[in-house]
Amino acid sequence: MSGGFSDPVHNPAGVDKLTVNYHAYVRNLFPHPFPVFFPDYLWFNSFMGTLYLVATPIGNLEDMSPRAVRTLREVSLIAAEDTRVTLKLLTHFNLHTPLTSYFEHSKLTKLETILMALNEGDVALVSDAGTPAINDPGYELVKHALDAGHRVCPIPGPSAPLAALAASGLPTDAFLYLGYLPRKSSERLALLCQVENLPYTLIFLETPHRLRAALIDLEVSMGDRQIAVARELTKLHEEIWRGTISGAMGYFTRNEPRGEFTLVVSGCSIHGSNKWSRVKVLAEIKAGLKMGESPSSLAKQVAELSGWNRRDVYKLISQ
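Given the sequence above, the corresponding structure tokens read:
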């Protein structure tokens, strides 16, 4: 079959033999009545289960949409990142749909089970909070469901990265979401080095115990940019701190970081796209001092090359 649709009989994409035989059985049981007017893949898919990607609240249960509740009630099975968390949600809305686990370390072993369930009815995928498949298990299931010829339908709703971006006060017309920052400082700096000159607003996730270290590396790599630090979004203690990276570091040094964080960082300005990062300026200073340059002369040279203010360069030399 040409185009963006996969034929689950002739192109099973790794689906097991039993599933392929089931597809052939359905085709024979329900022959296509109007192949000229109604595409074959749409006719066949009308007899297959749909995989629903259902967004769930990130803190406030009032954000659960009526459509999401109805979908979770009507599907045959819910695949959940943590069945204990999802069970609380189902109990709150008086839902009794069967649950199965689908998390990071079980996602590959559970694929066949969920695909077989899709042959018998609709399945919903949910994460612990927010939109499934965004920084949560789900990509592999979506891909295999599509390869097997199933329809995949998003039920949109809460998303921490988009909520933080919308409320950040930073440009929203173009942004880059990069998920959790790496655990190690060297790996964080390597990632930040790749994106420090991009003009897009940058969005990261971070844990409370790594927040301060992440802020230090952000300033080292990108300079003292504007940032919005959002935590506990939609919850009782929701907080969005806005200001510079250095200001955020000062605030969260005085106040213990608590909860899950979303960081929204301003992109590199068009006029400043050639401006050196702090890391590069420090490396140039170190090389100049090693060669015996005087602080005053070195500050002037580095400022001319880097696009930095001469006074700021001199401060770095004096540290």
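The chain is about 45% helix and 15% strand. Try to locate this feature in the token string yourself.
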